[in-house]
Amino acid sequence: MKKIAVILSGSGVFDGAEIHEAVLSLLAIEQEGASWHCFAPNMDQHHVINHLTGEEMAETRNVLIEAARIARGQIDDLVILDPSQYDALLLPGGFGAAKNLSDFAFKGSECSIHPEVKRVCQQFAEEEKPAGYLCIAPAMIPLIYGPGAKGTIGTDPDTSKAFNQMGGEHIKCPVDDFVLDQKRRLLTTPAYMLAGSVSEAAEGINKLVRELVKIA
Length: 216
Hints:
Layout: E1 3-7, H1 19-31, E2 35-40, E3 48-49, E4 56-57, H2 63-71, E5 75-77, E6 88-91, H3 96-99, H4 104-107, H5 115-126, E7 131-134, H6 141-145, E8 150-151, H7 157-165, E9 169-170, E10 179-181, E11 186-189, H8 198-215
Parallel strand pairs: 1-2, 1-6, 2-5, 6-7, 7-11, 8-9
Antiparallel strand pairs: 3-4, 10-11
């Protein structure tokens, strides 16, 4: 059975991992006959958002502890993730990818990636193991794979411009499809960058995961 490592960035679209994308990904992995295990950095979130009002809350939450809610406890600190023990990597989106795993939400093309996240993702790349990035998570790709890496965040002009400014090659993609950079074994899909419903997000995610498991 192929093993997929999944990196989460908290719990909740505005300050952590996009929950629908995360659950759809885990379901798709299982439906393709593979297994998953989740990881997250043991760190404080950039901030906490009230998902009912959209307002920032005066409290602190831990990315790993919040992500454990989605994984039902089947999760470990990212520092112990050994890519040699897994066949592929998957990163759901949500603002946590751009606020906790990186600071893309604040610095755009001048962003940086959390050191442990970068270490793990680059090791998967160096070992030529396939990786899938959903939604806004592909914004990190140019800093992981270097110049010329292909990926998509859908059609948003500002995000795609930043992706290209960082050295990547952005490719427009509809919500029900994915982009494959064959040279780098790298897969991306827009998910909730474009999706208007859970079922729309599922179309591209299911296709991406099917291909990810196939080439793993």
